[in-house]
Amino acid sequence: MVWGIQTWDANGIPNNYGIKPVSVVGTVPLAEGQASGAWSFPVPAGFKLGYVVSLDNGGTKVGRQVVISGNTISLSPASEIGPGNYPASACELVVFMERA
Questions:
Q1: Nearest alpha carbon to residue 57 among 36, 74, 34, 25
Q2: For 55-78, how does the pLDDT look when each residue is reduced to its tens digit (9 = 90+)?
Q3: Are 41 and 49 in contact (CB under 8 A)?
Q4: How far from 93 is each of 17, 21, 46, 74, CA to CA, in Å?
């Protein structure tokens, strides 16, 4: 007997593929207040970079923006809530690679 959960799109095509496989390619430690920097990683054709932000020390004010462009992740200052904007508190970026 097989167990699982399936979902379908509006056309009845299955669209639940389970956990998406990724490969962690590095971690970037970010210091309290750090709002600049850039890091590059090797990315083979057909793949793209992504990231997650680790738990931080509890910052509440937005202070940095994280942007991915090609094989580079960069930080810049940010002052308002928006996509990719985070508190500039001590944390780590966990950088991963996934199929594009």
A1: 34
A2: 888 877 889 999 999 999 999 999
A3: yes
A4: 26, 18, 22, 11
Q: How many CA atoms lie within 13 A of 99 on its CB side?
A: 2
Sequence-distant (6+) residues with CB within 8 A of 76 are 35, 36, 64, 65, 67
Q: Which two tokens stand for residue 50?
A: 């992504």
Cβ neighbours of 65 (radius 10 Å): 19
Q: What is the pTM of this model?
A: 0.78
Q: Whose structure tokens read 């690679």?
A: 97
CB 35 within 8 A of CB 64: yes
3-class secondary-structure state, position 18: coil
Total Cβ atoms within 10 A of residue 68: 15
- Length of the chain (residues): 100
